[in-house]
């Protein structure tokens, strides 16, 4: 790997240098060829293993933990920072540079009471979901590898430590701006420095002046809205949308108790610690805006308030536009101007998800099946899946009216398969792979990873990965302890 060290060199005072503690008996648990190629790597090697485990120095790496703060469950924590993640620098790849971070590399000055470690189950989950989301077409940080060890760590019980090698275009979070706005009060210079760095590195289309700042913020608002629209369309619940887990680039970031919905329940809460349902699935769009409001407030010393408020107004329409575009693809609706069909299309989408919910059907499979029907036929066999058959018939009538004539049904169905994935990372599948890893068998993890890299394809002999969870795996709720 070849590194540049722009953050490290240009933003002194925004991080602490720290050496990883190392892992005993490190071994590869997973490797993503696809992610590796982003930083010019192909196959795993012993020296990379020892390097990523933190046992050997990686040439050109700088080793630092960034400082940030953030709103956690609505309350401001003045100082967070990378408490268990060490960034090596920006690795140069064929299509640009990627931060390489070792998540779980040991304590840093920001660890507070934590041990700086990640347990194997959470490292594996982060690996799988990063790559799964990417292949589903959702912007996300990537995962290059997971390294396991025999090092004991304590959570509710004894587990083993592991490290996820995370790649991100940037690790700058909303919380970075909050930290330099509030926690280092009066440091307008540093806030500006961070803003200029973000723009220069990641938004070269904008200038570092007041006009550029506001154009940039408007972009952040729409990028965030579009990301959350994709989550809602694909049925992804993040679980911990604190502002320190919001990437400034509008990418999915920090995977803890996340879940892909199986049985559709619009207010599903995947995080065991989220007792009020703040981060329930159907709250995500509103929380995205709330988080942007916190970011706007943090930026108020450097951007005019009126401009910030104007920019926030872009959020809802951008989210609805992106959501309808995605859902329109899932339904196969012919394109029409949003002003004409926006409201009724939203009703159509809501009608179908309500039917799914009422009949306790699987979100992903429900959509996949819908895309396999013959919309030219008045009779729809899918109706038998629903308890409310009459409700379905009404919905189907409205759907067909909006669809209009479909001449080439086979092509129509093929296109639907590109919008309605067959394979998602169901929590129970991740759990089965993790249990196998605990028992020393990596095959189920590799097999699952393989399937998730082609989520829209029919894959021979892989139908069981598309099955609804067995009883023990239904609505699995994860804890934050990871
Ligand atoms: N085991 C741990 N030891 C030390 N600090 C931790 C540990 N787990 C979490 N933290 C810190 O607590 C804060 C909130 O944790 P959160 O789960 O959002 O982040 P994370 O998963 O550790 O990392 P990231 O956001 O980089 O993906 C962060 O500052 C994080 O570094
Ligand atoms: Mg985090």
TrEMBL record:
**Which EC class is the enzyme in?**
transferase
Residues that bind Mg(2+), according to the entry? 245, 254
Show the InterPro entries listed in the entry. SelO (IPR003846)
Cofactor needs: Mg(2+); Mn(2+)
**List of catalytic residues:** 244
Instruction: Cite a single GO MF annotation.
Output: ATP binding
Recite the UniProt keywords alphabetically.
ATP-binding, Magnesium, Manganese, Metal-binding, Nucleotide-binding, Nucleotidyltransferase, Transferase
Q: What is its EC number?
A: 2.7.7.-, 2.7.7.108
- Residues recorded as binding ATP, renumbered to this chain, are 81, 83-84, 103, 115-116, 166, 173, 254
What is the reaction catalyzed? L-tyrosyl-[protein] + ATP = O-(5'-adenylyl)-L-tyrosyl-[protein] + diphosphate; L-threonyl-[protein] + ATP = 3-O-(5'-adenylyl)-L-threonyl-[protein] + diphosphate; L-histidyl-[protein] + UTP = N(tele)-(5'-uridylyl)-L-histidyl-[protein] + diphosphate; L-tyrosyl-[protein] + UTP = O-(5'-uridylyl)-L-tyrosyl-[protein] + diphosphate
The family note in this entry says: Belongs to the SELO family.
Name the HAMAP family on file.
Answer: SelO (MF_00692)
Under the heading NCBIfam families, the entry gives: PRK00029.1
According to its UniProt entry, what is the function of this protein?
Answer: Nucleotidyltransferase involved in the post-translational modification of proteins. It can catalyze the addition of adenosine monophosphate (AMP) or uridine monophosphate (UMP) to a protein, resulting in modifications known as AMPylation and UMPylation.
Q: What is this protein called?
A: Protein nucleotidyltransferase YdiU
Origin organism is: Shewanella gelidii
């Amino acid at each position: 790997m070849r590194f540049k060290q722009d953050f490290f060199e240009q933003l002194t005072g925004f991080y602490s240098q720290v050496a990883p503690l190392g892992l005993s008996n490190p071994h590869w648990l997973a490797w993503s060829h696809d992610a590796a190629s982003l930083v010019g790597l192909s196959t795993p090697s012993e020296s990379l293993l020892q390097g990523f485990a933190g046992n050997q120095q990686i040439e050109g790496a700088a080793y630092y933990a960034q400082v940030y703060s953030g709103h956690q469950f609505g309350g401001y924590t003045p100082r967070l920072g990378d408490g268990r993640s060490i960034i090596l620098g920006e690795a140069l790849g064929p299509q640009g540079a990627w931060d390489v971070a070792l998540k779980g590399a040991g304590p840093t000055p920001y660890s507070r009471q934590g041990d700086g470690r990640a347990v194997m189950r959470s490292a594996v989950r982060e690996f799988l979901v990063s790559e799964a989301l990417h292949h589903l077409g959702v912007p996300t940080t990537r995962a290059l590898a997971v390294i396991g060890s025999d090092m004991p760590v304590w959570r509710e019980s004894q587990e083993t430590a592991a490290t996820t090698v995370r790649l991100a275009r940037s690790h700058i979070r909303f919380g970075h701006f909050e930290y330099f706005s509030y926690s280092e009060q009066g440091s307008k210079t540093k806030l500006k420095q961070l803003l200029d760095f973000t723009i220069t590195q990641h938004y070269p289309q904008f200038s570092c002046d007041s006009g550029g700042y506001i154009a940039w913020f408007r972009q952040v608002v729409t990028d965030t809205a579009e990301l959350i629209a994709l989550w809602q369309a694909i049925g992804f619940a993040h679980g911990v949308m604190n502002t320190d887990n919001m990437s400034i680039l509008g990418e999915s970031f920090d995977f803890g108790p996340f879940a892909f919905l199986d049985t559709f329940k619009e207010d599903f809460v995947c995080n065991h610690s989220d007792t009020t349902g703040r981060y329930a699935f159907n709250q995500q769009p509103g929380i995205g805006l709330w988080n942007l409001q916190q970011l706007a407030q943090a930026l108020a010393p450097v951007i005019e308030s009126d401009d910030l408020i104007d920019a926030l107004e872009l959020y809802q329409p951008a989210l609805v536009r992106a959501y309808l575009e995605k859902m329109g693809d899932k339904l196969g609706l012919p394109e029409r101007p949003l002003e004409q069909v926006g409201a009724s299309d939203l009703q159509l989408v809501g009608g179908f998800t309500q039917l799914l919910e009422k009949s306790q059907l699987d979100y992903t499979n429900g959509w996949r099946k819908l895309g396999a029907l013959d919309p030219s036929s008045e009779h729809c066999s899918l109706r038998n899946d629903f308890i409310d058959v009459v409700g379905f018939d009404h919905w189907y009538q409205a759907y067909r009216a909006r669809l209009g004539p479909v001449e080439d049904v086979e092509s129509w169905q093929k296109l639907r398969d590109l919008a309605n994935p067959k394979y998602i990372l169901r929590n129970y599948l991740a759990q089965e792979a993790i249990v196998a890893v605990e028992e020393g068998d990596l095959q189920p993890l590799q097999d699952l990873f393989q399937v998730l890299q082609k989520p829209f394809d029919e894959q021979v002999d892989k139908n069981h990965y598309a099955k609804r969870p067995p009883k023990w795996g239904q609505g699995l709720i994860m804890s934050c302890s990871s």
